[in-house]
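Protocol step 4 of 6: structure prediction from sequence.
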Amino acid sequence: MDHQSPPRFLDVQETTHRTSLRKTKLYQLISAGELRPIKLGRKTVFSEQEVNAWIEKQIAKRNEA
């Protein structure tokens, strides 16, 4: 039996909270293709899994330096 939790979406406010980024920087990352939003009607959300992966990537970059 697979106990993996279902995918979760984060809204813009939660994503900025999780990443400690302002909305302006978040939209710059979207333009650069680093984060990919999902449109649900008029609402913009992000995959929690992708946000967590982005955070881990930032930590890995720091550790390489």
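Step 5 (inspection) to follow. Strands lie at 9-11, 38-40, 43-47.
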